[in-house]
Design a protein that fits this description.
Largest sheet: 2 strands, antiparallel
Number of strands: 2
Shape: globular
Radius of gyration: 13 Å
Helix content: 55-70%
Structural class: mainly alpha
Number of domains: 1
């Protein structure tokens, strides 16, 4: 969910430039836990909620692409 070129572009848009390094450098378990417990706001939205919804949407789209050729 971090390294797909299309999804990575979306993360770059959502995050400030200062956040890019910590966001992309963490191991998977730490990345998930950190972002799901982060209570900061981005564009007047709670980051942990935005992150969880984005991951869910990305995962569903990926599965449609892989399993249904959409």
């Amino acid at each position: 969910m971090r390294f797909c070129p299309l999804i990575r572009t979306i993360w770059y848009v959502l995050l400030s430039r200062q956040q890019h390094s910590w966001f992309f450098d963490k191991v998977l378990s730490s990345w998930l836990l950190t972002n799901l417990s982060e209570h900061s706001s981005i564009n007047n939205r709670q980051w942990n909620i935005l992150f969880a919804v984005a991951i869910d949407v990305f995962w569903r789209c990926r599965n449609k692409f892989v399993f249904q050729d959409i």
